[in-house]
Structure formats: structure tokens, C-alpha cells
Amino acid sequence: SKRTEVGGRNAVVEKSENTIQNIILQEVENLDGILIATTNLTQNLDKAFERRFIYKIEFHKPSLDARKHIWQSIIPTLSDTDAQSLSHSYDFSGGQIENIARKRTVDNIISGEEPNLDKLISFCNEEMFDKSVVKKIGFAI
User: Is the pTM of this model over 0.85?
Assistant: First the structure.
């Protein structure tokens, strides 16, 4: 994350975080090798860190056709029509599709039945978890 001005609500924590970041920056400078780093939060990247990376590569989500192929490669039993439908309905990354395939596998193990398209759609909807909706975990009274 970006370094902050010390003197906010918790100056001790801010000072510690800045010190850690300065140490990391120094270690990056002293590194005699290749450093590969990834983030999906580029907007939070400190400018001093960003300057130390000569090459920056941005990866986009897969195209509609690529998503269809990902669906079918991870779930080979999926028909062309179902793979096309899921690809069109959900703009998922490959990692998200893999998460759904894992849920499908777990569901298959637990239930002993091959999950159908409706079940896959419910897994897709769960993967789109809206952070503004708070799900309660526990017992209802």
C-alpha cells in the first residue's frame, strides 16, 4: 500500500508500516536478480515501488471464446451449448471458473450426483458474491 503521513489516528502503526515499506524498498534495490510481483490492486501501489519495476504487464479477463474453452477444458463433460451459455452469462476470469469447477467437484463427492447446469449456475451466482450484501453465518433464532 501507499506510505502515509505519520500523525494520523494511529501514528505508531503508520510509522511501523512506513518503516517496513522502506526496508522492502531497500531490499529491492539491493536485489541481485529478477523480481516478479503480481497485484490486482495497482491503484494502491506506492509510487516508489512502481518506479522499481521496469516492465509492467496488464492481464485482462479472457474473451468470450476463451472463457468457453476454459469452461470446457476444466469441465470436459460440459456441452458446447452449456459452455457457451455460461461464458456469455458470466464475465469470469479463469481462476473464477476454476473455483466453480472445484465447488462442482466437492458437490459431486458429497451428493454422489453429477451437478447439472442449474447447479453450475448457482455456483456462478455464488462466485459473484456481492460485497455489499452481508451474509450471516451461524444459527438463526
Answer: no
